[in-house]
């Protein structure tokens, strides 16, 4: 994960101090790109232990089209708790935009199924795009995330807002545009999550996994993560683990938690960091 560590070091050493919505303060750069060849191993950080359970359940939750944190809580995942209403609602976030984007005439569009069908039918297409960025449902910045969710708006505007697939030489690649990236906490999750999505999409399309390309807009290190960043940068990276999917699953929406096996993951210890709300 040299790519990630280079980003962390670059932003720590060259980021511009910037105030932010949460009042924490950040060091930021604008525009940064990383590339992970998925045949070289699964891109999970080894310089701190990552909680893969949360990553898998969150991705299955997005793919199911769900936007209530009930499923996450039932599975011991708490990463979305701070932004939900007391009923667990987050408003029309990722799951709804991916699987049931509402049109003005009352129809819904399942972007994931459409892209999946198009990859199989027309792999050379340059239109294999899924967008979670829907200006019609962006939150009102004057009210809190849970008040927005209660009003039918997104609790938070999507951070990983648009992704595109690309097929060449029998391999499926994916590029994500992430408008805002919390380098210490969110970005390692986002990398593993989209790498996993690419492996799943490739399997059900009969393709090999290619590259995951991660493009960031505002890439920031929160000012209360600086010590943690130093600790991480002082560690020596280890070999990447291997992710194996149950080869029997041919339907993207049929994957369950038990279909994923991570082997040879030998990370350094977890590093705690507070999440900016
Ligand atoms: N400031 C901020 N950073 C984020 O990364 C983030 C948000 N807000 N808001 C929405 C979602 C929620 N996400 C989160 C929230 C918390 C963790 C977190 O605390 N991670 C810990 C523990 C993980 C766990 O409990 O599984 C970590 O050490 O990685 C990670 C991603 C990503 N997003
Ligand atoms: O998947 C995610 C979701 C969120 N983040 C981070 C990026 C920012 O630090 C906050 C969101 O705040 P905004 O003011 O809306 O940009 O959450 C992430 O890194 N990955």
**Share in helix:** 25-40%
What structural category do the secondary elements indicate? alpha+beta
Give the second-level CATH assignment, the architecture.
Answer: 2-Layer Sandwich
Q: Give a count of the beta strands, DSSP E runs of length 2 or more.
A: 10
Radius of gyration: 18 Å
First-residue to last-residue Cα separation: 27 Å
Strand order of the largest sheet: 1-2-8-7-6-5
CATH class: Alpha Beta
Unreliable stretches = none
* Number of separate helices: 8
* Count of folded domains: 1
The CATH superfamily is identified as: Thymidylate synthase/dCMP hydroxymethylase domain
Mean pLDDT: 97
Main beta-sheet strand count, sense and barrel state: 6 strands, mixed
Describe this structure in words.
By secondary structure, the protein is of the alpha+beta class. It has one domain: 2-Layer Sandwich (Thymidylate Synthase, Chain A), CATH 3.30.572.10. It is 30% helix and 24% strand. It has eight helices and ten strands. Helix 1 packs across helix 8 and helix 2 (52-64) packs across helix 7 (186-205). The model has no long low-confidence stretch (mean pLDDT 97). The protein binds 5,10-methenyl-6,7,8-trihydrofolic acid and the ligand O=c1ccn([C@H]2C[C@H](O)[C@@H](COP(=O)(O)O)O2)c(=O)[nH]1. It comes from Alcanivorax profundi. Residues 2-277 form the Thymidylate synthase/dCMP hydroxymethylase domain. It is found in: Cytoplasm. It catalyses: dUMP + (6R)-5,10-methylene-5,6,7,8-tetrahydrofolate = 7,8-dihydrofolate + dTMP.
């Amino acid at each position: 994960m040299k790519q990630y560590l280079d980003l962390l070091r670059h932003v720590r050493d060259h980021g511009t101090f910037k105030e932010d919505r949460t009042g924490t303060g950040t060091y930021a750069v604008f525009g940064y790109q990383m590339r992970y060849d998925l045949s070289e191993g699964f891109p999970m950080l080894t310089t701190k232990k990552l909680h893969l359970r949360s990553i898998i359940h969150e991705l299955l939750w997005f793919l199911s089209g769900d936007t209530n944190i009930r499923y996450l809580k039932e599975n011991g995942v708490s990463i979305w708790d701070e932004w939900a209403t007391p009923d667990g609602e987050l408003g029309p976030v990722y799951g709804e935009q991916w699987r049931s984007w509402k049109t003005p005439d009352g129809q819904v569009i399942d972007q994931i199924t459409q892209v999946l069908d198009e990859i199989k039918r027309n792999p050379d297409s340059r239109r294999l795009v899924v967008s979670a960025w829907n200006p019609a449902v962006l939150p009102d910045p004057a009210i809190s995330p849970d008040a927005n969710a209660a009003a039918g708006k997104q609790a938070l505007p999507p951070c990983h807002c648009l992704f595109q697939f690309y097929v060449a030489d029998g391999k499926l690649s994916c590029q994500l545009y992430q408008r805002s990236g919390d380098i210490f906490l969110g970005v390692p999750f986002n990398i593993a999550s989209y790498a996993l999505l690419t492996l799943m999409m490739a399997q059900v399309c009969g393709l090999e996994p290619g590259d995951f390309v991660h493009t960031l807009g505002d890439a920031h290190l929160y000012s209360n993560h600086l010590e943690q960043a130093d600790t991480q940068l002082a560690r020596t990276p280890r070999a990447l683990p291997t992710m194996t999917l149950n080869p029997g699953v041919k339907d993207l929406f049929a994957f369950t938690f038990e279909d994923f096996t991570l082997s040879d993951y030998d990370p350094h210890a977890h590093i705690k960091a507070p999440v900016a709300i």
